[in-house]
Amino acid sequence: QVQLVESGGGLVQTGGSQLISCAFSGGTFSNYAMGWIRQAPGKERELVASISFSGQTPYYLDSVKGRFTISRDNAKNTVYLQMSSLKPEDTAVYYCAASARGAASRLSLFNYWGQGTQVTVSS
Length: 123
Hints:
Helix content: under 10%
Distance between the termini: 40 Å
């Protein structure tokens, strides 16, 4: 049973940075594409970023390109999202997600989700 546990969320100021992490267990991490999905209150979920099993060809939501960086450490079964130049509209619960596919850039392709971590960006 794949389990994902996020950490590192919190309150940051506009323009600030935040690193969130996700620990994967219950499967072979290197077989899965990994992603970060966010949901703001009253809004639909959106795929923020994803990375293939090998780390090749990362995907980013247009609104976060140049500000967020996704990375993974297959030796540690961990995926990261480094968020910079944060804006109030980035405020959301951020979920770590895993796809049984080796690469995934669509929300519907993610099979497993973590519990989420709140990121709040103050104006």
